[in-house]
Amino acid sequence: MKINKKWLINTAISTVLIVSIDVSAHGTRHWNGHHSNNPAHGQNNDQLEVTYKPDDAFYGDTITESGELVVDIIPDRETARLHSATHGLIPSQRHSLPPYYDLPDMQNVDDFIVTEDEMVIINPAPGEYVRIMEGKRHGYKSTTVGISKTSPGGGAPLHTHESEETHVLLNGKMRYQLGEEVFEVHSPYVINIPPMVPHAFMSLTRKPIELVVFYPVNQWEFDFVEHENAQDFFTLPENQ
């Protein structure tokens, strides 16, 4: 993924803002209530590295160690009101990709092919790395695709998207929370997640799996919401 050199030059003279990550006594991180104390988290994901670092942040932006641009959701503002109108949970942060990139010319066939090394990598939650083809970076008007490499016990705590979302898994087993419903599903499957419905997922598979997600918009963006039962949700079965 090419990063615009002008942004990097500006970054060198700008103030870098870094979100501090809560660390427990054992050095594990917290993602919106999802406490990673599962030794399976991160298995076979060690070789992956996020595309954007905190030092890449342009003045006024905050890039976390997860490689994302993060903005706190302020109560009584437009985004918070959208959440209150659709569900009863409290939104905490909006996550998106840093907008530092060069647009393709879309003049030859190579511009219409997005290879793995051109995708943005983020680490939005314990045990999960996502390669993202964000449509607006690659000439798409209404498509974004993510490939989530999820370790056993890894996944995403409750969050929402303003667009609908499609999950496709060809091999493995997942636990989901969709709204207030918690269920498990074996592959192969396709799941439709409606707009603004809080949802979470965790891999119940013994090895890392690749979950493919689709959005009918050209921007990657989601909001974390409170997940009071996250510890129970992310507990693997005893025979796992």
Give descriptors for this structure.
240 residues; mainly beta; Jelly Rolls; seven-stranded antiparallel beta sheet; six-stranded antiparallel beta sheet; 3 helices; 15 strands; 9% helix; 32% strand; globular; disordered N terminus
Structure, explained:
The protein has 240 residues and is mostly beta strands. The protein has a single domain, classed as Jelly Rolls (Sandwich). Helix content is 9%, strand content 32%. It has 3 helices and 15 strands. It has a 7-stranded antiparallel β-sheet, with no helix packed on it. Strands 5-6-7-14-9-12 form a 6-stranded antiparallel β-sheet, with no helix packed on it. Strands 1-2 form a two-stranded antiparallel ribbon. Strand 10 and strand 11 form a beta hairpin. The longest helix is centred in the middle third of the chain and has 9 residues, at 78-86. It is globular. The termini are far apart. Residues 1-43 have low confidence and may be disordered.
